[in-house]
């Protein structure tokens, strides 16, 4: 998993996952995996799913980057406390899943809560098939 700055200001995590590295065969399967993780989490709550690819293709001037064949977001929140109204600016969480030919690109914005960030990293890295000896 790679950590980088998008547009020099948004801290994001990215995992590029070859299709041979995972048992998931589609964006839908990966989103279903995350849905299961969120729904079984002790306090995370699922908000919804967004078909970014479908939305963009319906726009009269919508543009899709070369090679992207599917793109969805799963939206959820870990927020078990709200101590400052400014925190609303960085909630809820979203994990994006794009399909590009022979691989998937999974990305999410760094969470202000380190435990939430660690959980999203663990969920994402677990998509990789275990290496067999």
Kindly describe this structure.
This protein is α+β, with helices and mostly antiparallel strands. The chain has one domain (2-95, 103-125). Helices cover 25% and strands 33% of the residues. It has helices spanning 27-40, 52-58, 114-125; strands at 2-6, 10-18, 45-51, 70-77, 93-100, 103-109. A 6-stranded antiparallel beta sheet has the order 1-2-6-5-4-3. A hairpin with a 3-residue loop joins β1 and β2 (10-18). The chain is globular, with a radius of gyration of 15 Å. The two termini are 22 Å apart. The mean pLDDT is 94. InterPro entries: DUF6858.
What tags apply to this protein structure?
133 residues, alpha+beta, six-stranded antiparallel beta sheet, 3 helices, 6 strands, DUF6858
Topology:
Elements: E1 2-6, E2 10-18, H1 27-40, E3 45-51, H2 52-58, E4 70-77, E5 93-100, E6 103-109, H3 114-125
Antiparallel strand pairs: 1-2, 2-6, 3-4, 4-5, 5-6
What's the quick description here?
The chain has helices spanning 27-40, 52-58, 114-125, and strands at residues 2-6, 10-18, 45-51, 70-77, 93-100, 103-109.
């Amino acid at each position: 998993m790679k950590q980088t700055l998008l547009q020099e200001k948004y801290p994001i995590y990215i995992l590029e996952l070859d299709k041979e590295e995972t048992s998931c065969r589609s964006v839908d399967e990966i989103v279903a995996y995350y849905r299961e993780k969120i729904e079984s989490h002790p306090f995370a709550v699922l908000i919804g799913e967004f078909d970014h690819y479908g939305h963009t293709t319906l726009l009269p001037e919508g543009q899709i980057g070369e090679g992207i064949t599917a793109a969805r977001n799963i939206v959820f929140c870990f927020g078990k406390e709200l101590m400052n109204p400014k925190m609303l600016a960085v909630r809820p969480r979203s994990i994006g899943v794009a399909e590009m030919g022979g691989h998937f690109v999974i990305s999410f914005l760094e969470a202000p809560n380190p435990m939430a960030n660690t959980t999203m990293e663990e969920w994402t890295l677990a998509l990789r098939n275990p290496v067999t000896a």
